Amino acid sequence: MDNCIFCKIVKGEIPSTRIYEDDICIATLDINPAAMGHTLIIPKEHHNDITDNTDEALLGHLFKVASIVGERQKERLSADGFNVLQNNGTAAGQSVMHLHIHVIPRYDNDGVIGLWKPLEPSMEEIAAMGEKLS
Ligand code: AMP
Ligand code: ZN
After folding, report:
1. Which residues is 105 bridged to in the sheet?
2. What pLDDT is recorded for position 2?
3. CA 22 to chain CA mean position, Å
4. This prediction's pTM
5. Which of 2, 105, 120, 131 is 20–30 Å from 111 (CA)?
6. Which residues approach ligand 1 with their CB closer than 6 A?
7. Relative to the CA of 93, which ligand 1 atom is closest?
8. Which CATH architecture has domain 5-133?
C-alpha cells in the first residue's frame, strides 16, 4: 500500500534491521524500543489491523513467529520473559496502520509496570459483561 511505512520496510524501500524472514512475514527491530531487542513481526501483505481481512493461517503464523522471536530473546539476550502485544486502533495505541505484533524482552525487576490499572467490578457487573460479549 502506498505511503505505508511497514509496506516500505517489507519492500526494502526504507532500511530496517531484520532478524527473521519467511514467505509470510518479517521480524525487524523497533527503532524506538521499549527494551533492547524489542521486535516487530510484520506480515508482508498489508492489513490495517488484526480484523482487516485476516485469516486463521496468517494470524496463527504471526503468533508462531512471535513465539520463536521470544524464545530467541530468552536464549540470546538472557531475557526472563517477554511480552507479545498487538495494538488495534489509535485508542489502543496503534500508530502504524499496518498489522504488526510487538515482542518485547522482559527482565525480573525491570521496573516496567502494567499497561492498565485494574478495575474492581462486582460479580454482577462481570456477569452482565459476560452476557454482552457471549
Ligand atoms: P504501534 O504503536 O503498535 O502502531 O507500533 C508501531 C511501532 O513501530 C512503534 O513501536 C514504533 O517505534 C515502530 N516504528 C515506527 N517506524 C519504524 C521504523 N521505520 N522502523 C522500525 N520501527 C518503527
Ligand atoms: Zn502496509
Report:
1. 82
2. 87
3. 17
4. 0.97
5. 120
6. 5, 16, 30-32, 40, 87, 93-96
7. 2
8. 2-Layer Sandwich (3.30)
